[in-house]
Write a structure and sequence with these properties.
Shape of chain B: globular
Number of strands of chain B: 13
Helix content of chain A: over 70%
Helix content of chain B: 25-40%
Radius of gyration of chain B: 25 Å
Order of helices and strands of chain B: EHEEHEHEHHHEHEHEEHEHEEHEH
Structural class of chain A: mainly alpha
Number of helices of chain A: 11
Radius of gyration of chain A: 19 Å
Number of domains of chain A: 1
CATH topology of the largest domain in chain B: Rossmann fold
Shape of chain A: globular
Structural class of chain B: alpha/beta
Oligomer: heterodimer
Distance between the termini of chain B: 39 Å
Chain lengths: 264, 334
Amino acid sequence: MIRRYAALIRNAWLVDLQYRASIVLWLLWGVTEPAIALGIWWAIAGDGSVAGYARADFARYFFAVMLINQLTIAWDSWYLDRWIRDGELNFRLARPLHPAHEAVAENLAYKARTASVILVVWLVVAVAWPAVRLPFAPGRWAITAVAAVLAAAMRFFISFTTGLLAFWTTRATAVMELHAGVSLFLAGRIAPLALLPPAVAGIAGVLWFRSMLAFPVDLLTGAVHGTDGVLRGLAGQIVWLAVWVGAYRLAWLRGLRRYGAVGG
Amino acid sequence: MSSIVTAERLSKTFQVKVRDPGLRGALRALFRPHYRDVLAVRDVTFGIDPGEIVAFLGPNGAGKTTTLKMLAGLLYPTSGRVEVAGFIPWTGGPAFKRRIALVLGNRQQLVWDLPPEETFLLNRAIYDVGDRDYRERLAELVALLELGDVLQKPVRQLSLGERMKCELVASLLHRPPLLFLDEPTLGLDVTAQDAIRRFLIEYRERHGATVLLTSHYMQDVTALASRVLMINRGRLLYDGALEALVARIARTKRIELVLGGGDGNRVTAEALAAFGEVKSFHFPNAVLEVRREDAPATSARLLAALPVADLSIEDPPIEEVIRLAFARSGEEDE
């Protein structure tokens, strides 16, 4: 399996090299959203603080959002939608390799590429701008890495499962757009969850949204307090990951039975 | 010999959403969707022996591709039983998929932006082909398909014919004993079509592969297939050799004449009409159509009565026979 993944990742990178400009554009897109959010909160915070967040806290938060978002984002619903509707799934189903492996390999290739660039950018900025420096805490970074892997796995299954809706509807990507819109607020992309009205933040915590981004971000910036907070966050991630894996299994098996194998 | 492919009473029904035209129809379909069952394949039964080349014949929407996709494990049948290479296709998993190749004329697996060799390397990894096997098989396929100079060009710069040849290479590197080819010559020029046909014949001779193909081009069928499965409206109409089909469907034969005789005693159309239906007459060439069983006797009478320089007895063109067969099946359905 390692050989297969190596071949898939190699191909993904070779394709990327054909589209260098688009890599830069996607990277800029990934940076722009948190940069704008930071700009707004920077202005609002002024010399004081908002719900305990001063300017430096916002800076660290949104740099962490940039990194964790790139590490966990998944585009698979768009691919799946095309594979199913255009019949590109056909040859993938005829190969002795589950199509999800190709999607996972694409994710690894993409994340390694963009997240490493963002990490370098963060390090360079941190040299000049002390506000975005994180205290040296290898233990916390290790837990963050675990939480980021869980979040990436969950977002992958959310995206893949939503893409599988294309077996039933031609508007699967619209569902994903809706999810992305909701997660702008509930996952902490536009503001730390602590700044949301308590009822809204509560919903984000009960559903999977906190687990997919805000929790690992808070871990990295040190906003999760106590072992209890860490364990509860990780448990929430594991439960929601299991739920989405279950949803994926159901959609995959049911969808294949429905599949029309478009084309020809 | 035991069959490598067995299909028993195979059926597939699709549910298709139907809606009336216009805005009102669209709104109604939104709130009260209405579905109609389409019987794509109905009660199809056949067996295929190892090493056979079998062609599915049928007009668009006849059910041939649906049948092929069920055999390849892409589609679940609504009812019936299928066994392919000892597996039930949709539960066979990787072991089954290593034993088949699926080539779709209108969908490609080659990575569009990279040279074809990158897809070959990917498939080497996916199918666990050893390095030595990979090199030997690639060399053989490249030589047979005369692909030497295209392996390093990006796929998007290849001609349609070159792409199809590369699709075949990508699909055969794991040396499957069973090939499913859906319209493998679709859109190709005559030279490329011919190259693909010659390759398939050579490949089967070398490796004893079983080939199932669908095609709209009769040349594919006549050049490749020892047996045809004729499908229309989801039903299997005929299963057997192409020649036997012609004998069964075509009730007539064509007698092609080259007439002799000088300008003074030219044979007239009226004189020819006494022997059979005159399909064409441009002196000295004439084509007569007669009942199948009358062909030998009529030929003898023609030779005795008229100044004939040359005479041959032919079946009607295969396309015409097929058209006739489908037209008759349509009448029977109604």
